[in-house]
Amino acid sequence: MTAIDSDLSRRGLLKAGGALLVGFSFAGALPRATSAAAAAARGDAAGPPNPMQVDSWLAIHADNTATVYFGKCELGQGNVTALLQVAGEELDMDMRQLSSVRLDTNITPDQGATSASSSIHRGAPPLRAACAEARQALLNLASAKLGVQPGSLVVDKGVVSVEGQPARSVTYGALIADKQFRVALSGTAPLKPPSRYKLVGQSIPRLDIPDKAAGKYVRMQNVRVAGQIHGRVVLPRGQRAFGARAVPVSVDESSIADIPTARVIRKGDFVGVVANREWDAVKAARQLKVEWRDTPRLPNTDLHAAMRAAKTTDTIIVDTGDIGTGFRGAAHVASATYRGPYQGHLPFSPNCAIADARGEQIVVQCATQNVYGTRNEIAEVLGVAPEKVRVQYQESSGTFGRSCYDDAAQAAAIMSVATGQPVRVQFMRWDEHGWDNYGPAHLADVRAAASPDGTIVAYEYHGWQHGWTTKASVHDIVLGKSAPERPDGTTSITVNPINTGSMYRIANRRVINHAVPMEGLLRGAALRSPLDLNYGFCSEQTIDELAFAVKMDPLEFRRKNIGGQRWMDVLNAAAKAAAWTPRVAASALSNARVAKGRGLGLATHNFSYGAAVAEIEVDKDTGVIAVTRLYGALDCGLAVNPGNVENQIVGQMVQATSRALKEEILFDEHGVTSLDWNSYPVLRFAESPDVVPVVVQRLEEPSTGAGEEVMGATVAAIANAFFDATGKRMRQYPMTPARVKQALAARSASNG
Fold first, then answer.
1. Do 718 and 625 touch, CB atoms closer than 8 A?
2. What is the number of other CB atoms lying within 10 angstroms of the CB of residue 246?
3. Closest by CA position to 735, among listed 717, 749, 718, 747
4. What is the pTM of this model?
5. What is the CATH number of the domain that holds 689?
6. Fewer beta carbons within 10 Å, N or C terminal of the chain?
């Protein structure tokens, strides 16, 4: 990667009201000057712009091109390309006529966080409505210009013509030419029916891939600004128990006196260092002598026992039928306790931010999933009004949820205000690993029952986990208080009822959430497909055990009990791709050193439908599981860009394999000890499975999530494949070699 100066980017940086905007466009490397002029006017004042005005979403330029504004970040999922497809479809413009700008709190709409697979599900509808409204307004202008009724007009590539008389035409650019629409969204502008789609539903190549493949793509870590100095945060190696924070008892500033230009920055309990040279800042952070306040001990000897013993807030999530009646007299009952780990977001390149407090606004360039949320939190930490902070998004390494991006942004802002200079802050690897907001651990007791003919008659799921906070560690350290868990307390992060038996017809079903207080454990936050990997691992193994008990093929057992056609369709799609042949699981066990197995899983995140088939090999001597091939089927309603969805399926399944087999945050009684890639291993390229993605396209259905929905199914399929290969069950993941060998040593083939 090549570091760039923020005043000039090969990929095109738009100068707008003192801000710099990355533009994505099919039309060439540099966004056009008319786009820059339109952005400049928007960038003069703090946002967000009024979402009920067409001008907040769109600008049409004299050259018959358009700049599209939206509030969902490009995190590597391809949403910029897909959202431009949505806009182009409603405008009847070609993709080469469209461009977008990076998110900026002075320019782009506030569409909330780019999370929960929401870019298309929740991000596209208002954009689609605004573009339909703009098209209608442009047709009215063309009607007056050409002297015909709007119903007599057709549009192609932004050229409006009289139907059957193509010579009588006018372009969008000629009609409005960078002027504002001044049109409110009425909600009545007609949307194009799916039968007329030309762009939506097509696998248009992603805009960002060529530069990424060529090593030219500018990420946050590559950005530099003139006159910047460098900063580092100073924290204990590995976070302590949540609620204790990192509180310095003493800081010996003289301990870095020998490092040129290095100085200590303090705000509340926050400790950082700055220096003119980056290496000097790194040395100063390592060399600074800080005595930290003692913190409560963590339950490192048995985390899950501590969770079960905690004073929980218990909530009945689902209670249908009569559980007691369902289990009484059932021919077959499967029950077990399952355990899942803390896991980290841990982007490959640690988080980074640049802040410049010299102007009227404090300008912060950073990664984030929510530019307006980041703006508000920086303002809170600095004690200023949100309008005094301007956040400009820069894509970073994959984050998959709330990594330390806000910590870096807040630290940079604090240091820039203190020094009066632009400050670039990058976390060190041990900061990113040790102070991540981890995906919470999970404990589950699951039982289910079936009749002799294989009908599921009862199901019960008890889940223990703590919630998460939406605030950064730096926020808490500066303000001297621990941010609470989600606003509704520990009951706000509950067991997902969709992933705990809802895909099957079960007359008697109960799901109970046992919310564990986060205080005294590790800091939690949403990690890609939050807790769904646990539900898939626990619930779908229980379903598989029932299939084994009644001596049915796992696919046929699920088909018999499936609760809806869309679940049936993804199940069949995955099975067909895998050329599944019916047989009872663990019915072809081998004495060979390497055993092969296959397994199925169903799961989702919130709204879509996911299914997976796994083919694995188990080395009984070493305990190593190799996932050789995965098949994933996803129904996300209308797939705006099926190629993007295929890529998402592949990425989900590879990451889920890593999390199923390797990833686990470890800690001792004092703090986190997983501080690098040796102590927190991830799947390597050579270990990655082949993945066959299948998109179940539904043009007439609303778009739902496509970024998380096969992960739980993947972990379930791998776990069930392990049973098929060995006749033993894994009750805890990650399924490390040590745990595999322990499971293989167990005596019972069916109960593990």
1. yes
2. 23
3. 718
4. 0.93
5. 3.30.365.10
6. N
